[in-house]
Design goal:
The protein is 21% helix and 30% strand. The chain is an alpha/beta fold and 159 residues long. Helix 2 packs parallel to helix 3.
Length: 159
């Protein structure tokens, strides 16, 4: 199963659109976003996804009521998702995850730092797709994760 992962979109609509176009072109079956959408107008782009969206709030998602109106599935982390028999822990920041939760997860997906992390720890994977917005690093990145072997392809979006 191919999953699209994006984080820290920070209202940058062209980057969100490019990410969603990539996910559609690659036939992802689900999308995971560990937070920092920011505003409901940006969330409306994510709400148009034709595949399931699993999403948590980030530390900059202040307009929670408006976000929840557009994305009723959004919640505080930790969020547990099971896809293709993989236990996936989703939270905005790795530092907010308990050691017990990390130990139980096959995959830990976070954001917050705006830096790409793709790290295997034994049989588990830690993944931060970097920042979709590109505001901090000047790189708009997302990830494609295959649940079969937990392989990851980090993709830089061209805007």
């Amino acid at each position: 199963m191919l999953i699209g992962v994006l984080s820290d979109t920070h209202d940058r609509l062209p980057a969100i659109d490019a990410a969603l176009a990539l996910f559609t072109a690659r036939d992802v079956e689900a999308v995971i976003h560990p937070g920092d959408v920011i505003a409901p107008f940006a969330a409306r782009r994510l709400a148009k996804l034709a595949v399931p969206l699993h999403i948590t709030y980030g530390n900059n998602d202040g307009e929670r009521e408006g976000l929840a109106e557009v994305l009723p599935q959004i919640q505080d982390g930790p969020l547990w998702v099971t896809l293709d028999n993989r236990r996936i822990l989703v939270h905005h920041f790795i530092g907010w995850c308990s050691p017990e939760d990390i130990a139980r997860a096959d995959v830990v997906i976070t954001g917050h730092t705006h830096e790409v992390v793709q790290e295997r720890r034994g049989e588990s994977l830690r993944l931060n797709p970097g920042e979709c917005c590109g505001w901090v690093t000047d790189r708009c990145t997302v990830a494609l994760m295959d649940t079969t072997d937990l392989s990851v392809e980090v993709c830089e979006l061209k805007l």
